[in-house]
Queue: 4 jobs
Job 1
Amino acid sequence: MDIIRSVADLRARLQRVPNNVFVPTMGNLHEGHIRLIGIAKPRAACTVVSIFVNRLQFGPREDFDSYPRTFEADCRRLRDAGVDVVFAPEEKEIYPELQTFVVEPSDLQHILEGAHRPGHFRGVATVVLKLFSLVMPHSAIFGKKDYQQYIVLRDMVRQFALPIEIIPAETVRAPDGLALSSRNAYLSPEERREAPRLYRILREAHDEITAGARDFQRIELHSMWELANHGWKPDYVAVRRQADLQAPAPDDRELVVLAAARLGKARLIDNVEVNLPR
Ligand code: PAF
């Protein structure tokens, strides 16, 4: 496994094996990332993983400085997973000058996560476009835990006609249902025991909709109330269409229930897809 720090070295290395599949990450890797690599590996001769904590996607009061950085442990996991190239640039390699050209996603960037994290998706889209132009993969894998991120990047690739297939991967969960996330590290032991409630509430919403409930606003409010009742500070629970994350029309069959809520210091997000029979 090659660990590469500079853009020049990355370009030289990938010239040798241009058939590559890409998994972008911010490090602090867990089983969810390893699953993405498992999906990537059979698709190309070379699997590239980036580790880069992207300042541009963090708000001024967010956790950029304290975001867990575990480079040595990450490299051990990546080696065991059979990754070929790790691209772990310093900030100056990615942003050698002030990044004044940015990717401005559609209005999708202002709803749900975007409403609570202004500028987040602009930062994500900008760094991912830049990483794509450095790595030039034919495919890239993104976890569906960050559902809105996946939709924004899928649309970016389509609208800019980038020759890259975006492959979504299912969320990986702990046995009690909690979605794996680097930010779970912020939970105290007591909060960790409480945290699976988020997924349980999403499953309940899923089951109600599957059983025929169509008053989505009631379901959203009830779910938020449940969370608040157990010490959470919910930002949103929202029933949306999978295709574009807009409010569903009566005949929409592919839905997703998305949620974000704070528990202590941690802000957790999760979602559950609902596929109704046609
Ligand atoms: O999902 C993440 O880890 C990040 O948002 C990404 C896609 C690596 C961009 O920094």
Job 2
Amino acid sequence: MKKLEGKVAVVTGGNSGIGLAAAQQFVLEGAHVFITGRRQSELDTAVKQIGKNVSSVQGDVSHLVDLDRLYAKVKEQKGNIDILFANAGVGEFALLGTITEAQFDKTFGINVKGLLFTVQKALPMFQDSGSIILNASIGGSKGIEATSVYSATKAAIRSFARTWAAELRHRKIRVNAISPGPIDTPAFTGLAQTKEEVEQIKTNLVTKVPLGRMGRPDEVAKAVLFLASDDSSFITGIELFVDGGMTQI
Ligand code: NAD
């Protein structure tokens, strides 16, 4: 039997990178998946790529009305949720001294406020069991230059996993954080002006990874699948690093 047979999953930011890879794993293991993202054209491409048992809902996680629309659609089509992967997130990097109010508000608005309300608004649809996985980052545990704002949002997410694991244990809902290291996704494209600069950023990062390479989205997705499935039935409140050893070594 497949690991998620008959389950209903929601993946925010499921049209790209880690979220898309997780949605693909969930469907392969028998779930019906709702993916969200900001751009309809990218959602349409992702739906084609996933192929079956997938629905898309366009929306911005930092807009609460969009979250209401998402969960109304899930309720109408499936009635409840078993798995939530709160994955949507952004990162803009700036040294202390150059951070703008707009960058701060945008990053906290999506990564912290958006994630909190993604989870809070989903709760009535869980049937006193299930798994919630929050996408944090190794940035939450490390001092990496130019990441003050991004890393602070990810430290907040790691903290949410602890608090919510405590609050939701009575409903048998497990809450865990996943913390990827450098993973080769489209997120890197926006970090520099040219392709060469992007490659330079990746090359520099790889020198800091004990396993000597960037991770692939499917390698994070498999760890998310583990936390989503009953294979992790006695695990709640943890942070699972998928980082080629970068945080520990
Ligand atoms: P990506 O750019 O491929 O995917 C990001 C996804 O988030 C996209 O689907 C995008 O549409 C969605 N998104 C962004 N803002 C949104 C918003 N306001 N509302 C709805 N959706 C929104 O990048 P990725 O690398 O797959 O990133 C996914 C998550 O993984 C992020 O939370 C990121 O911080 C985290 N992460 C990534 C890495 C990495 O190296 N790639 C490392 C650690 C953590």
Job 3
Amino acid sequence: MKEQAKKRIEELTQIIEKANHEYYVLDNPSITDQEFDKYLRELEQLEQEYPDLASPSSPTKRVGGEVIDKFQKMKHQIPMLSLPDVFNIDEIIAFDERIRKSGFNPEYVCELKIDGLSGSFHYEKGQLITGATRGDGITGEDITHNVKTIHSLPLHLKEPIDIEVRGEIYMGRETLARLNEKRAKENLPLLQNCRNAAAGSIRQLDSKIAATRKLDTWIYHLPNPSDYGIKTHFEALTFMKKLGFKVNPANRLVKNIDGILEFINEYQEKRPYLPYDIDGVVIKVNDLEMQASLGFTSKYPKWAVAYKFPAEEVLTKLTDIIFTVGRTGRITPNAVLEPVIVMGSTIKRATLHNEDYVMEKDLKIGDIVSIRKAGDVIPEVVEPKKERRTGNEKDFQMITNCPICDSILERKKDQVDHYCMNPNCPARNIEGLIHFCHRKAMDIEGLGERIVEDFFNMGFINNIPDIYHLETHKKELQELEGYGKKSIENLLDAIERSKQNSLERLLFGLGIEGIGDKTALVLAKKYKTIDHLAMQSEQDLKKMKDIGSILAKNIHDFFEKEENIQLINALKELGLNMKYTGIEEKENELITGRRFVVTGTISFMSREEIETLISNYGGNASSSVSNKTDVVIVGEKPGSKLDKARELNIEIWNEEKWKKVYDSLEK
Ligand code: IVH
């Protein structure tokens, strides 16, 4: 019986892996979804009956299930290097000339530079054994449990060989769009781009979550080609494809610089229409002996470069400038654009920040403007095309009255923003309520932007205490079109739960001007109760390292206003917790009392996780570098904050240093 089961398990594994390969790698299925499910169920059943026959790389593992409590380190047998960036054609020509000067006449392989994160995958006797992140290049993290859920990565190869391959783990654009739609409904912050989404997904402890993220792979590097008698990189790509890996069909062998330029131009045009994000083109010397004799610098191979595309700019018409009112009453001008596709997404609006910004750019309504979108998602109006003006454009006029309540706007001395000062302005109130419920504030799941607006317009909530009175309208709410019994029950439960939140959430939720979630936490930790905080003089507040004179005044003014005291008393009566109940601070000489900025991607932790840890150790994490910053933690692709840190001579910690500090912390 068992012998028979063993045989059938092998058969089913083969059928399922073949079907999986056809579907996810070749995009050419030969069996139906129903047949696939039938085989998978049969395999699951047999594995349940004979657990000792279930292989750790069985296709049933694709749905996830394994949960780990922390990521184990994994040393790379050969370091995982990254590539030097080049930004223009001259630099590519210089790269080619350098190689020619060494006496070579090279052919190149051009590949797309996939915007994800690199991974290393080990197979023994053709079976997937481990997967690891790049980490600092020397040591990565074991992500085997999540890697097994990636359908395009074979669990079994076509040959029973031992091999390591490397490539990019990424999330497709469509997958990210679906995921963000879902997150928007759940009031969760949206993921900024495909790369962050992939990095966050692969760092899940629970592989079931990783499995739902539908990650994908492109394999592009074979670290030990000579073990398989391979002489060129292009051969290595073909070899890996034959073994069952997903190798990008765009990869192209070219003879010279002209071939490289043709490839770059072609994919610059195709880029917006690709189903995944790329941020450039990788150019590699094809001949492996040539690669070996060119060698490496301490950081990079000398036989490859990554050409980075410039941020994409497109032209469209600025049809109007409209104004929105934020919760603090701040007025923002917004560009209304003729819809245009930039980097695969349709852009209709872009923030113009404030009056000065519009004036400096000299924008007129009716202008043809250029829109730029870099790797991340926020589009930017670059400039008007003045040479295309017809004379029919309209000058920009800053408004003088609130677009919602018509009260006169104020522009405070030395500030760029205009404010609606009417505390009862409906726009301010709605924004204030949305802010109160936000994930980083009271975190009331189910009270997202749209629902707050609906309830406000229907008169159920006019102010914050009304949220806690919604219970009394339960029946009415359950009868509303589109809501339903269960969702209202869940919502009321979430509201009830929020009463227990620690003080910092309430402080942030109250929307005191200039108090972000991090400052709220610092205040909550220091003063422990809202009454204690309310008692502080401006002078006392100013003594805190993180509170400047403007913030001290804002906090003090807030607690001076009778209406705010009344609000707090009303919330106390409704049973809201007014104490800090978070974790007590730990100490570390490298972190406690110091100000940090985190920039770029650290491979083994998200920025949020790093910032929380810093804050738990009594440090402060902020988002912009200034001369008050003590340390800048720099990951991959850091951007301008690193330049600023260098300019100001601020201590810089790279990933390796952060890892050392992180490992030394008691967690
Ligand atoms: S080759 C030694 N090829 O870009 C060769 N890298 O800055 C190492 N990447 O860390 C990498 N697409 O995450 C290579 N076709 C491609 C790539 C690629 C994306 C990423 C990879 C690497 C970074 C290099």
Job 4
Amino acid sequence: MPEKDLIHLTIDGQRVEAPRGTVVLEAARAAGIRIPHYCYHPGLSRVGSCRLCLVEIEKSPKLQPSCSTPVSEGMVVRTGTPQALENRRSVLEFLLANHPLDCPVCDQAGECELQNYYMAHGRYDARYNDNKSKRKKATPIGPRIILDQERCILCTRCVRFTREISRTFELGVIERGHRSFIDIFPGRELENRYSGNIADICPVGAMTDRDFRFQCRVWFLGSADSVCPGCSRGCNIEIHYNNRFNPRYHTRRVERLKPRYNGRVNSYWMCDEGRYAYHAIDAPNRLSRPDPGPDGASGEDAWSSAIGRVAASIKDAVAGYGAESVAVVASPQMTNEELFAVRRLFFDALGIGTIAFRAPAREEPRSDDLLITADRHPNSRGAEILLPPGGGVGDLLRACSEGRIRVLYLFHHDLTAGYDPGFIRSALGRVPQVIFQGSWSHPTAELASVRLPAAVYAEKEGTFTNIQGRVQRIRAAVPPVGHSMPDLAILARLGAELGAPLGSDPEAVFDEIAGSVDAFSGMTYASLGGGGALLKQGAGA
Ligand code: FES
């Protein structure tokens, strides 16, 4: 940034530089100084209404709102003077005067800014002894959100979200002065495609998430940074998992998803479809162990038996009918590392040229101009770059129905979603060996002779390439369910059986990609950082 656009100021005795136009609160945050605030949210317009963020600014006769005061050259800011502290305490006393004593039963406990700021800055002896005002409690206002008006502090973040981000205008401030309250407009429901964000931005327990309500106390949650696999936008997320042993799954499992800030991808938001899709991770139709072989092997032995059978059928088909008798349908749900391994094994080592990855979708694409894209896969860009150019799934299915394919290796897809189920049954019925590697059982998986259970995105490491060409990391939050394994580990075992050694460590495979695929050159897991990196412009595979 040019020097002329940088402003120099002092905050709490610390010399700070900030871009021109930055507000004091953000300049302080960047310098590691946290100023308490409620109504301010960096993704929304500023209203300066809660007055909690007031600080002393030299030469100003009274306290100034740090959330709406831009930095200026030579400014001297003090955030912890007796006057600023007294203001915080007074604001909290006003806000809590009518606040119900819900903390023991409030779902926000542990991440409630009223609790946190009271403990840090309030701690006064209550002077308000009258009856607290009564408002609507625990009222569902849409499929995702419950409103508790008594807990609301009228920061209006939720109202501004529906006006500025979702642009659906369901919420408003009703009445004036001390009678004000937030409510849904008559006849409306809060059912926009981004409504879950309202629970995220509510600093108290007024707007809570119906899905997560009473599922887990937040202090039992661990977190892993990842990327939503719901569409090609690649919204940055945190996967929150229950840190305690869950007897139902014999291990810890995912409890909720939260958006993670990435100014170049999703800002502070994510859509509801992606947010609540985590339920599929532990859905009853998860494939959690390989089918027992003819020998009845189970557990680890079942894996050896299944891999052995798959390798033998591929070897036999290639030896007896040529490499063109084997076809592969990879999936844009797979990571870059896994797609690269598919290429290395099937194309480079075995000479199999029929590798498709695009299959028609179940639903009509429903994109919007905020985050949701029409492509419901997180890694179509990666598949385009890393897989050899091939025919579509349609051509491949025609070859199956004409009896030209001896082994079909299918990753993840449910082909009955985009094709007539009768056609799929008859086409796959002409293939002597259908191998399915994926995470869920569905009509296509049911047609396979061997099913290899694969881990989902929350159970493995790797990278996706989003619609912009941004390569972003996903991280394992929980262990793979049952005996399932990441696709990369399954491919490595199959490669070893077929005499084509492949790496099973995602980071080492990514280094191999960066060393051999021009578009990824120079990238490492470390260089991707938290926000990812763009593919090299104009580079091919
Ligand atoms: Fe500054 Fe509310 S955060 S006035």
